[in-house]
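Researcher: Predict the fold of DUF2294 family protein.
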Amino acid sequence: MSNNTNNAYLAMRIQSIILEEYKNEVNGKPKATLKFFVRDKVVQKAFPKDVFTFTGEDMVLERARDGMTPATKKVFFKLIERVLHNYKKIDYAHIAISYELNAERSIEDMRIEIEEEKHYKYS
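Model: Structure tokens for DUF2294 family protein follow.
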């Protein structure tokens, strides 16, 4: 089932938001989950987060330096685009994109979860 035009704009906006709001994750972390809320086929919310870890004396902002290479990002975005283009039209949903990189900073594991919201009106 291919719905090429249904989620094309959504895929483009998710890529843009990842580059803007999730740049610390994809550029610096070998493992992360990127979360979005979609309403009326448009990304309405993103949920970037900072993580503080205990170092033995203090809490410090977690910063890694072994995230995605430009080539890995290209593959990452192509996989997201492929899933969304072939998925049914998304009206209301929470989308979570998780990835894990290997030692060469290529994608080892990736998961895209689309949790749809169903709205019911009772009279």
